[in-house]
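Take a sample.
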Amino acid sequence: MGSVRLSDRDRAGSAAGSRADSGASGRGESERNDDDGGATRSKRLFFRIRVAILLTILVGVILYAWGDARSRAARNDWSRTLDVGIILVNTGPSGSLDAELVEALRERARALGDRLDGQLHRYREGSPPFAFEVFALDAEGERAPAPPEDEGVVAALRYAWDLRRFTHSLDERSGTADRRFDSRIYLLASPVVNERRKTVEGLSQDGGRIGVVEVELDRTMLDFALFVVAHELFHTLGAPDQYGVDGHPKVPDGLADPDRLPRYPQDGAELMARHRATSEHQSVPPESLDELTVGATTARAIGWQR
């Protein structure tokens, strides 16, 4: 068989082709490396941008919380009159709270302001402590979120979130969302079910800005409803309850006049006790705002007395 011999030109061509293939392969590998490097740099850049945004949001939340905490604490300096919004929410059929009843509530809210002004001046001089403003809206069937039975942190955060959503919705509908009140008390009013047993209940954020009162409202309940409004308002200012597990006023801090002789029956109802003590183990709800009394322990708790 004959043999095939490559000429010098053929060998040169073959070598050149080999170098070309090698160069093309190198360029392809380099391009892939460049692509991978670019993708890695893009991912790193996106990660840094995301972290920067999250840190900015976190700093903003911290600054807002710090500013709000300072603002809430400054309320207890009593260097100015505190603005309090009372949001009257008719949870019954639309129109079931007539205009005369709403106006009567506004008048009694002014009386509440006068009564609390008089109580302040038992302990110190100063401008009126509160300016109450009443807003009304219909919201048939609305109910405040129920407080959690679980005392865990997650349940508490969930409840705070639900309450904030609930109250913000009422703010939007009442036209008060943009108002900067020092505290807001939401008075959820429903028609009276039983004339012999009318109910009123309340809850609030201790040291916060929000309180909720649920009441079966008619003209006979106006003063007691506003008494409970003031009770929840004082909770937002840091005042603790002054009644025991049996619901009766604590002795002596829950008594309007602990130095009275004979001690019972008391003439007034200490605000954070919610009831007027008639004996050591008996008490009754106040019948009028004229009975409302801020005791010395409560006065110290909110900064009226040092």
User: Anything to note?
Assistant: DSSP finds five helices and nine strands in the chain.
